[in-house]
Design a protein that fits this description.
Length: about 270
Amino acid sequence: MSDLLSLMLTLRPKETSPGSAYWGPAAHQALLDLVRQADAGLAAELHDGPGLKPFTASSLIGYSPRLGLSREQTYSLRFTALNGATAGALQTAVKVGEALELDRHLFEIEAATTEAKSHAWADATTYEALSAPWLLGRVQPESRFKFQFASPTTFKSQKKHLPVPLPALVFGSLLEKWNAFAPVALPPEARRFAEECLALARYSLRTHMANAKEGGLRTGAVGVAYYTAINHDRYWLSLMNLLADFAFYAGVGAGTTMGLGRCRRLSGE
């Protein structure tokens, strides 16, 4: 059974309407409601439990506040799970043809997939399968990394929000989530390697505003960033490659359970 899951939903609104300004909090609530249908105790734990959450939720992909919701268009919603219990609950509860409520708007679930061949943002695997190529030395680790930040990405640093994907912040965020949920922890020195031995080589980023709690706004980075290693130690680079692959499920930075920090590693230069 998969303990890392990326579930893509295709949604059609029940009616044409102005819609909402930002869907992240509504998606967060919808995920908890779905989990509650399968396991009420797990839903309460996800809602009330301290610390990092073993899931992410996107905003409504394809929606434009200027155009609003159209009954003639479909939209996408992405949920990820970082442990087997959450992954299993989502797969049990999501049913094609049933309704899903987002911020008092009803949608029909027209499709749901966890297959990469069906959608570029869908997939399912295990921690063991994700880590084996890197931790068992089966492949030569890459020394260059290309990340796509598909939704506003920001980091909490020294009690402030920093909308700049610096290597230590990106890989530090991934390391923290990995060690919170993976069965085998990675050494905390991996963050130091990212800070001292990875460089932000170039980027094509822009700032994007997203709604935050209590009506506030949060600035995040959207676009592509390239990182390169200045130390080619095989062991530490293998850990960086593993964390780069993990970004697809974990997201990076703050607010990943409410639409922020949707991220993936891209191939190519």
